[in-house]
């Protein structure tokens, strides 16, 4: 088993019309044994920028703490929040400097620019960025997430439709992966608000 699959995870970010959604499952496992059913994989950097970390849970928490530290330094120096593109470059650089003993994480970054244009990207454990205009996925359920998102995605979705689409894609995908599941955690971010919802899923 790959170390990336040790704890199990499912992450997806999807763009809508001047909004984006980022969602994850809630299971923390050690291989096939479930340890927790309310594990947090999505973290808020600021009101318009979120990061999801799939992979090894301990590395995800360590990486998140380092990213918060770097972002606070940026806020103190620049007196403004970081743009999503800048933050993606920061995450990439942070991962690449540890390339000989990497963090076993695959991040998914989603944010809104100053012009309310959604930005999403993912990268591998050494920081090679993969940008997308529709959706990005990560984690052990990524194969079934690709299929579900490909089938359900439409352009210029309103926030409520985007929530429905990303939720259905997530729930149908984790049912096909025994290492992720136990419900979902969804954030839908618009220029004016952040909506957080918990999904109930199959408990097996």
Automatic annotation (TrEMBL):
Keywords: Cytoplasm, Nucleus, Proteasome
Compartments where found: Cytoplasm; Nucleus
GO biological process: proteasome-mediated ubiquitin-dependent protein catabolic process
Primary location class: cytoplasm
GO (cellular component) term, any one: cytoplasm
Cited function: Component of the proteasome, a multicatalytic proteinase complex which is characterized by its ability to cleave peptides with Arg, Phe, Tyr, Leu, and Glu adjacent to the leaving group at neutral or slightly basic pH. The proteasome has an ATP-dependent proteolytic activity. Non-catalytic component of the proteasome, a multicatalytic proteinase complex which is characterized by its ability to cleave peptides with Arg, Phe, Tyr, Leu, and Glu adjacent to the leaving group at neutral or slightly basic pH. The proteasome has an ATP-dependent proteolytic activity.
Subunit structure: Component of the proteasome complex.
Name the UniProt record assigns to this protein: Proteasome subunit beta
Source species of the chain: Cephalotus follicularis
